[in-house]
Every structure is written in structure tokens, then in C-alpha cells.
From TrEMBL:
<feature type="transmembrane region" description="Helical">
    <location>
        <begin position="167"/>
        <end position="187"/>
    </location>
</feature>
<dbReference type="Pfam" id="PF00474">
    <property type="entry name" value="SSF"/>
</dbReference>
<feature type="transmembrane region" description="Helical">
    <location>
        <begin position="350"/>
        <end position="374"/>
    </location>
</feature>
<dbReference type="InterPro" id="IPR041992">
    <property type="entry name" value="SLC5sbd_SMCT1"/>
</dbReference>
<feature type="transmembrane region" description="Helical">
    <location>
        <begin position="12"/>
        <end position="30"/>
    </location>
</feature>
<keyword id="KW-0813">Transport</keyword>
<feature type="transmembrane region" description="Helical">
    <location>
        <begin position="448"/>
        <end position="468"/>
    </location>
</feature>
<feature type="transmembrane region" description="Helical">
    <location>
        <begin position="395"/>
        <end position="415"/>
    </location>
</feature>
<dbReference type="GO" id="GO:0015730">
    <property type="term" value="P:propanoate transmembrane transport"/>
</dbReference>
<keyword id="KW-0769">Symport</keyword>
<feature type="transmembrane region" description="Helical">
    <location>
        <begin position="50"/>
        <end position="68"/>
    </location>
</feature>
<feature type="transmembrane region" description="Helical">
    <location>
        <begin position="194"/>
        <end position="214"/>
    </location>
</feature>
<dbReference type="GO" id="GO:0070062">
    <property type="term" value="C:extracellular exosome"/>
</dbReference>
<keyword id="KW-1003">Cell membrane</keyword>
<keyword id="KW-0739">Sodium transport</keyword>
<feature type="transmembrane region" description="Helical">
    <location>
        <begin position="522"/>
        <end position="544"/>
    </location>
</feature>
<dbReference type="InterPro" id="IPR038377">
    <property type="entry name" value="Na/Glc_symporter_sf"/>
</dbReference>
Amino acid sequence: GTMGRFTVWDYVVFAAMLLVSAVIGVYYAFAGGGQKTSKDFLMGGRSMSALPVALSLTASFMSAVTVLGTPAEIYRYGAIFCIFAITYGLVVLCSAEIFLPVFYKLGITSTYEYLELRFNKYLRLCGTVLFIIQTASKLQSCSLTLYTGIVIYAPALALNQVTGFDLWGAVVATGVVCTFYCTLGGLKAVVWTDVFQVGIMVAGFSSVIIRAVVVQEGIGRIVNDSYYGGRLNFWDFNPNPLQRHTFWTIVIGGTFTWTGIYGVNQSQVQRYIACKSRFHAKMSLYINLVGLWAILACAALCGLALYSIYKDCDPWTAKQVSALDQLMPYLVLDILHDFPGVPGLFVASAYSGTLSTVSSSINALAAVTVEDLIRPYFRSLSEKKLSWISMGMSLFYGGVCIAMAALASLMGALLQAALSIFGMVGGPLLGLFALGILCSFANGIGAFVGLVSGFVISLWVGIGSQIYPPLPERTKPLYLSTAGCNITSGNLTSTENPLTTVFHTPIAERPALADSWYSLSYLYFSTLGTLITVVVGIIISLLTGGLKQNTDRKFLLTKEDFLSNFSRSKSETVEALNWKPFTVTAEGTDNPAFSHIEMDVASNKNKVNGLHI
């Protein structure tokens, strides 16, 4: 039969999803007396409990890219992608046991605040390092807004081409609703809308999986087809670092790449620091792991169902769809067109992914701007004013993100390239935090030189790999068949993006480096950046007398941090954070970076309840 288009019911379901999200925002704007301080607005007043935060972490991690991209990835390259389940486990362990204890006990709003505390104190190079920290946060905000533009635009495009779902209507609607609830409700609204959106995503996935199993008469047939189609390629232990996905690239490279996102990325750290106790913060990460596994399993099943249904007639080669991420919407319309409202549920689930990612970016951008760029320079602002400024910033960044989506529509390929290059920034930054938390002797000079060298090498490989994309034998796409197709012309006009041709240089002129150095698996880019930053940082710190400095223990990961997992004392709440972190010496006067922290501490002299932290 003919492929379905969108019906009224689908639009109703989609609108309902946006409406519920907006209502949550309004509720948290007025619940409990509203947002009194910027801390309330940006960190939910540090009173969140583990479960909503866990679901929220899962949601913002799962953008529409997951809903549309992962099944297509498995369809094209096979289920080796599922090895990421191991990676997620390692990432959560690292985040919860290495980064979280330090960030939590310091009670930080912006992760960059930590770099300032840890490195500047002993250096009169304060200016330089602060400048780097500012650039780092600006870089992150830059990449986040870029990223957010793509996150809003890419799914809108894929869904529009398959379902005829209005493109700019969807982009503007999602952008506006998102900005609306971020601006009104702050972090609490972001977290609770995320919880709702995870529900929608799982519902969307489930409807596709259940229907596909019914169409294929049982899950056995799907698994069987996948097995004979070579899609169950879990165990590929090839140690070659050039091959795109092997067991090692995913477990080692993936761990570094995602720890950069989970352990030290502002939008994630901000969530788990908002928990009411450190126990809740850790629990939220571990519960979130279960969520990640569930979503990965759903996406994998969808990918295998895709293959099983289209094994004899691949819509992509048959020019039915013009890009791989349109396969999922195509499948949904193909098998669910008799069920009014269900395709709408799937689209709602893809957009839930978008909304949750965008809202966390907006909130994180507002936090970084207020904490790193406004608070240190305008001391006289009252808390009430700062919370209004935070709201204004949310509004502003929401606008910027919608503008970025418009930009993404004009220069898609260039933005994709920029994005993958920004992805490499994560590596050196992770290295910088690792140096600070794990090496007591690392000093500012070492950290600076390490960061720059890691950055330069990452950029070199990254830009190289953009100019000379790796050859197909490195990426190993699996066989797709069009033998069973009997369609004369596609119902979709192929809208090839003319910009993708920019980067493809003729094969003849590939330099020697292109097939060794530049073909490195994309997952190893961060790993390279992190390791170089750490190694260079350690060497330079030792050469510049890093052993002579005595670093305050609370900026490091100590064995007490680990042992306190096993003794849960009641007094281990946020109150214990208001001890006096600095003795107020003359230092505060000549080092402007710290005076606001000292003033803050002097005002709330809470005695620590006999805890050695």
C-alpha cells in the first residue's frame, strides 16, 4: 500500500507532549515560593533526590540522535555498538568515584570554578590561567550552542522528509517551549520535564519494537535474520586503532570520550551536584546507568528489527529515503500507519530527546555565564537580581539555540565538521581535570602547557580526519540488499546536501599520513587528547617544582572519599561544605579571583560536625 502521511491525531499527540512540558515549567516557577536565589534557579536549591536526577541524566544524554541515529547505525554496521553497554558502566564508575566526590564536597556551581580553585591559588600566573578557564568555558558554550542547533535541526529535517511533519513549525515550537520552561522553572523544571520525556522516549521505542515483533511473527525471526545478515557482530577483538568500531576502540576510546561528557561536562555535573546528599548524587549516577542500558537495548532492538524487515529491500539504497537517520521514521510510517496517533508518539519521542538535551544545554549555559562571567565581576548584585539575570540568560540562550538551528539548515556539513572538531576539545579538558584531581603535584604551568599541547594534537588529527575521511575498509559497513524491491520511483525526492562534497578530495592525492594518523578511530581522538594533556602536564609540573607546593587535600581525591562509601554518617549532608576553605590572609587582596569565595565563607560560619573531609 501507499506510505502513510501524518494525520490530525499525530499532531495532537505531539502537541500534548509540548503542552505537558510547558505546564511543568509553570508549576515549578511558582511552587515553593518560586526561584528566590540564583542557586535555586541554577541548582534546584541542592535539594533534588536521586531518582528524578538519574532519569534526567539519562534523558539529556539521549538526544534525538539516539532515537534516530543508533538504530540506523546498528542497521548499517551491526550490533557491535552494543559493546557501549560496557563503556557506560566504566564511565559511570569513573564519574561517581573520581570526579563526583571532589566536585560535591566543594559545592561548586560551575565546573570551571574548580580549575580556578585548584590551580590558581599558588600561582601569580592567576591572570593567565583564569583567561584559559574563561576561554575554556566560552569554548564549551560555543560548542554547546552549535551542538544544540544541530540537535534541534537534524531530527526536524529527518522527520520532515519522511512524514511531511512541518519543519520550521517543529523547530520553533520545540525551541520556544524549551526556552519557556527553562526560563520559568530553572533546574527543577528541567529535571522534571526530563523525567516525563524519558517516559515518552521509552513509549515511542516500545511501540515500534512491539509492532515490529508482531509484523515479523515473533522475536526469534528478527534475531535469526540479524544473525544470518551478519548483524550480530559483537566480538571483534581486532586491536587495530584505525578501525572505527572494535571491542577495544569502544571500551577504551568510548570510555574517555564519554567520561569527558559525564564526568566534567557542565550540564551533567550541574545535575548531580544538585542532589541533597552525596549518597543521592552517587545513586543518581548508578540508577542512570540502568536507564542508559535500557535505552541502548531499545535502540539495538529497533536496529535489528529494521534489518529484519528491510533485509531484501533497503530503502536507503533504493532511494526511498535520502539519509540513514530517516530509516526509523520510514519504518514507523510503514508498519504503524493503521494506528492513528502512534506515529505521532514516535515523533514526540524523537523530539523529547531534543527537548531534554536542549533544555540541559540552556540551563548549563546560563549557569556558566552567571557563575564564571557575571558573579566574579559584579560583586554588588543581590541574589534576587542574580536570579533574574539567570532567567534572562536562559531566555537569551534559548533564542541563540533557535538561531543556531537556522544556521544548521544553511550549512549542515560545515557544522557537522565543526562539531566533531569541538568533540575533541573534551579530551584535553578531561585531562586537565584528571591532573587536578589525581596529581597533587600538578601546578598551573604544567596544566597550561599540557592543555595546550593536548589541544593542538587533537585539533591536528581532527581537522586531518575531516579533510581526508577514512576509507570504507576502516569503517566496515555491512551488506545491504535491494533484490526484493519492486518500486519504480521513490516517493521521496532525494535532497542531497550539496555541502557534503566540500570535504571529499579525490583519492589520488591522499598523503601518507591520511591512512595511518588521520584514519584513527574517532573514539580515540579524546583518548589521545586526555593522555597527552596528562603526560605533558605531569612532566612540566615536575620540572617546574610541582613537588614543592602543598595542595590543599580537599581539591584532590583522597582515600577518605572512597572509604566514606561504606560508612554513611547522617551528618554527611551539604552543611559540611560550609567549612572555612581558606584562611583569610592577605592573599585575598591581591588575588581577585578568591575574594568572593572568602567573603561568602566568612558570612556563614557553620561549624563542621567533627568531620575530617
